[in-house]
Amino acid sequence: LRAHAMNATGSHVENPSDIVINVIDMNDNRPEFMHAIFNGSVPEGSKPGSFVMTVTAVDKDDPKTPNGMLRYKILSQNPQSPSYNMFTINNRTGAIITVAAGLDREKVPQYTLIIQATDIEGNPTYGLSNTATTVIRITDVNDNPPEFTTDTFFGEVHENRVNVIVANLSVTDKDQPLTPAWNTMYRIISGDLDGHFSIPTDPTTNEGLITAVK
């Protein structure tokens, strides 16, 4: 504001003065997450301390005061397997990292975390809070070998026939279907010195198709 001092006749008796009014921030805004649901991923078997993702919240209050200073924490993890605290969060940056070993996609393919952001530097009594959901997908690595469904397969073919399927070899693989870790390659290691047969793979079923080629 600019204030003017005048006498009764309206004459200025001194130079105008500036009056500065500072509006002091009150904690009247809750933290707001950038997304209601955050999506991230981490490979199975990751070591403790592996980075997963970062969640971010903003607060309209003055960031130079505690009113706008946020702290993050994990409220819950679902499922709680193989441990209830598979992840931890940097309370200042919102970075989520693995804290325990045992991530196994074949057992738990996905985790859901509820994240809380609280202002007043995380003060549970006076701080205002908000929550968001974080979905962490456990990605596949090639940690399971294919296994034949039986020890012996049988087939037959007429003599002098080529390019016909003699037998189908079936396997199971616990890795994620239709990925390189799941796709099986077959080869003959003994019993066919003259190369009468080959075994291409059916890309849909992952079966080995023993085929007469000579």
UniProtKB/TrEMBL annotation:
Species, as recorded: Characodon lateralis
Example GO molecular function: DNA binding
Primary location: other
Membrane topology: Single-pass type I membrane protein
Transmembrane annotation, as ranges: none
Lineage of origin: Eukaryota, Metazoa, Chordata, Craniata, Vertebrata
Alphabetical list of Gene3D superfamilies matching this protein: Cadherins
Coiled-coil blocks: none
UniProt name for this protein: Chromodomain-helicase DNA-binding protein
SUPFAM superfamilies: Cadherin-like
PROSITE patterns noted in UniProt: CADHERIN_1, CADHERIN_2
Subcellular location as annotated: Cell junction, Adherens junction; Cell junction, Desmosome; Cell membrane, Sarcolemma; Cell membrane
